[in-house]
C-alpha cells in the first residue's frame, strides 16, 4: 500500500487527486492532507479518507478545521507538515503559487517521490530542488499535463537521444482576439478557459500565456534541456499534451482528452499504469488537431520563460512573483489585462539577480519583485 501526503487538497488539482485516490484504493491511501485556508473543506476530506493528519496554513483555518471534528491529528506550520511528509511514500505538491515550495523541498529532502503539480517549485528553486533530489535519491514525477506527457514520451529513447521537446498550449480564451479586444478583457472572461477547468490563478496565466513561460522554466529543470531545445506550440484542442523529438527525427507525443486525473494517476502509479481510464475516448476527438506558433506580439508573456532561463539564478522567482502581484491586481479590477505582462516583463528586466541562489536568496528575490511589481501597478 502506498501512503500519499496531499498538499493543496482543497484546490482544483487536490480534488482531482482525491478522485484518483478513490479509484486506486486500497492500494493507494490518503495518509495526510493539507491546505491553506479552507479548514472546513479539509475536515470533510479528513473524515472521508480517514487521514492520520490534516494541516492548514494559519490559526484561523486551524480553528475552522478543529471546529468541524476532522477525527485526526491537526496542526499548522512547517513542522507539522514535515512530520506528515516524513511518514508518506508520495507527496503530491499541489498548492498554488510560491506557497507550494516548502512542501516540495521537504519531500525531496526526505527522499520521497515528489508528484509535482506546483510548477513554481521548479520556477523558483529548480537548481536547489534538483541538487537536493540528487543527494537524497528523491524522484520527481511531473503532474503538470505537458510535463507528464514529455516525461512519458521520454521513455521511447535515451536522454542523450533527445533533440528537443515541444510544450503545447491551448492559446487560452483570447487566442484569436486582437489588441483592442485584449485591452478590454474582464476577469470573468479571462477566468473562462476553453478546454481545461482550473483554479483562478492558472486560468489567468493561461489567458496571458504566462503559464507556458512558467512551464518552459519548469521543463528546462525537469528535463535538463537548454532553452533553444524547448519549443512552444499553440494547439487549441488540448489533445496533444507534449512531444519529444529524438535525434533521428522521430517525434513521440502523448495524447488524450484534457483531464488532470490522467497525469496525477501516472505520477502515483509510475512506472506502472492502472485502469480504468477516467474519460472515454473517441477518434472523433482527434478529427482536427492543429498547431501554430504563439503570437508574441499579442501575448508577450510567452517569451518570458526563455528570457528567464537565459538570465538564470533568481530570474524565475522574480518573474513568478511579479506575475502573481499583477494577476492579483487584474482580478481585483485594478489593472488592465495587457498590463499583467508589461508589469512582469518590466520587473524581470530591472531586477538584480543572484546566480546560484539558496532559499534565502530566492525568498529575498521573491519579496523584492513583489514590491517592485506593486510599484509598477500603481
Ligand atoms: Mg500545464
Characterise the protein shown here.
The protein is an alpha/beta fold and 378 residues long. The protein has two domains: 2-142, Rossmann fold (3-Layer(aba) Sandwich), CATH 3.40.50; 147-311, no CATH class. Helices cover 47% and strands 15% of the residues. The strands form two sheets. The protein has a seven-stranded parallel sheet with strand order 4-3-2-1-5-6-7, with helices on both faces. Helix 6 (120-136) links the parallel strand 6 (113-116) and strand 7. Helix 6 (120-136) runs antiparallel to helix 14 (315-331). The chain is globular, with a radius of gyration of 20 Å. The protein binds magnesium ion (MG).
Shape: globular
Q: Kindly state the mean pLDDT as a whole number?
A: 95
Number of strands: 11
Q: How many domains is the backbone divided into? A: 2
What percentage of amino acids are in beta strands? 15-25%
Bound molecules: magnesium ion
> Structural class, from secondary structure content?
alpha/beta
The succession of helices and strands, N to C, reads EHEHEHEHEHEHEHEHHHHEEEHHHHH
Largest sheet: 7 strands, parallel
Low-confidence stretches: none
Helices, by number, come to 16
Give a concise summary:
With 378 residues, this protein is of the alpha/beta class. The protein contains 16 helices and eleven strands.
Topology:
Blueprint: E1 2-7, H1 12-24, E2 28-34, H2 39-49, E3 53-56, H3 59-67, E4 73-76, H4 78-87, E5 90-93, H5 101-109, E6 113-116, H6 120-136, E7 139-142, H7 145-153, E8 162-169, H8 179-183, H9 187-191, H10 200-208, H11 210-223, E9 230-234, E10 240-246, E11 251-255, H12 261-269, H13 304-311, H14 315-331, H15 337-350, H16 359-377
Parallel strand pairs: 1-2, 1-5, 2-3, 3-4, 5-6, 6-7, 8-9
Antiparallel strand pairs: 8-10, 10-11
Helix pairs in contact: 2-3, 4-5, 5-6, 6-11, 6-14, 11-13, 14-15, 14-16, 15-16
This protein binds magnesium ion.
Residues 144-146, 215 line the site of magnesium ion.
Amino acid at each position: 500500500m502506498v501512503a500519499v501526503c496531499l498538499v493543496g487538497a482543497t484546490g482544483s488539482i487536490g480534488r482531482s487527486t482525491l478522485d484518483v485516490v478513490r479509484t486506486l484504493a486500497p492500494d493507494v491511501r490518503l495518509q495526510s492532507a493539507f491546505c491553506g485556508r479552507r479548514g472546513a473543506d479539509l475536515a470533510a476530506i479528513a473524515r472521508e479518507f480517514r487521514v492520520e493528519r490534516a494541516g492548514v496554513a494559519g490559526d484561523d483555518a486551524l480553528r475552522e478545521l478543529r471546529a468541524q471534528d476532522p477525527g485526526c491529528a491537526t496542526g499548522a506550520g512547517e513542522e507539522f507538515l514535515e512530520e506528515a511528509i516524513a511518514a508518506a511514500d508520495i507527496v503530491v505538491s499541489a498548492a498554488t503559487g510560491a506557497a507550494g515550495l516548502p512542501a516540495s523541498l521537504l519531500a525531496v529532502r526526505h527522499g520521497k517521490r515528489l508528484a509535482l503539480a506546483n510548477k513554481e517549485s521548479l520556477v523558483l528553486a529548480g537548481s536547489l530542488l534538483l541538487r537536493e533530489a540528487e543527494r537524497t535519491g528523491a524522484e520527481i514525477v511531473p503532474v503538470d499535463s505537458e510535463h507528464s506527457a514529455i516525461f512519458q514520451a521520454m521513455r521511447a529513447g535515451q536522454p542523450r537521444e533527445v533533440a528537443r521537446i515541444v510544450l503545447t498550449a491551448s492559446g487560452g480564451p483570447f487566442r484569436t482576439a486582437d489588441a483592442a479586444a485584449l485591452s478590454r478583457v474582464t476577469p470573468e472572461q479571462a477566468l473562462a478557459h476553453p478546454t481545461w477547468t482550473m483554479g483562478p490563478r492558472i486560468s489567468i496565466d493561461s489567458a496571458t500565456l504566462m503559464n507556458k513561460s512558467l512551464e518552459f522554466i519548469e521543463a528546462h529543470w525537469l528535463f535538463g534541456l537548454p532553452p533553444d531545445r524547448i519549443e512552444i506550440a499553440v494547439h487549441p484542442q488540448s489533445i496533444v499534451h507534449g512531444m519529444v523529438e529524438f535525434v533521428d527525427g522521430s517525434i513521440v507525443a502523448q495524447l488524450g482528452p484534457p483531464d488532470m486525473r490522467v497525469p496525477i494517476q501516472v505520477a502515483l502509479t509510475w512506472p506502472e499504469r492502472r485502469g480504468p481510464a477516467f474519460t472515454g475516448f473517441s477518434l472523433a476527438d482527434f478529427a482536427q488537431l492543429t498547431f501554430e506558433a504563439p503570437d508574441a506580439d499579442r501575448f508577450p508573456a510567452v517569451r518570458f520563460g526563455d528570457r528567464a532561463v537565459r538570465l538564470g539564478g533568481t530570474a524565475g522567482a522574480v518573474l513568478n512573483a511579479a506575475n502573481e502581484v499583477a494577476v492579483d491586481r487584474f482580478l481585483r479590477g485594478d489593472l488592465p489585462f495587457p498590463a499583467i505582462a508589461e508589469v512582469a516583463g518590466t520587473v524581470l528586466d530591472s531586477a538584480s539577480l543572484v546566480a546560484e541562489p539558496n532559499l534565502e536568496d530566492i525568498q529575498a528575490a521573491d519579496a523584492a519583485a513583489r514590491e517592485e511589481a506593486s510599484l509598477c501597478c500603481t
